[in-house]
Amino acid sequence: MVRVLLDALTAADSQRATLLGLLDLSAAFDCVDHSLLLLHLQHSFGLVDTILRWFTFFVTGRTLQISFDSHLSPVKPVLYGVPQGSVLGPPLFVM
User: Bridge partners of 80?
Assistant: First the structure.
């Protein structure tokens, strides 16, 4: 991050244009298909039995409810995505 800022300031001092392209993958974590992920873990990584059941439990069976202005939405199942904020979220997304 410091290097990017230094390069931008150096370019500005030299009166050169600076362009920065960013890619936001935060919503991509919400698009992971549970069944495809579990099949991939089983076939590509050889996970079976207890460890595969643990991953199944980790990514499935979650629900979502939204609270807004003291009103609650109905509880809905989360059918896609990996838990964000967990240590396993990013590696599961990459897998």
Answer: 33
Say which DSSP state 73 is in: P
Q: How far is CA 27 from CA 10, 22, 54, in A?
A: 33, 14, 24
φ, ψ for residue 8 (rounded to 5)? Answer: -65, -40
Residue 48: both structure tokens together: 């079976």
Helix (H, G, I), strand (E, B) or coil at 1: coil
Look at the pTM and tell me if it is higher than 0.70.
no
pLDDT-derived band at 84, boundaries 50, 70, 90: confident
d(CA 81, CA 73): 20
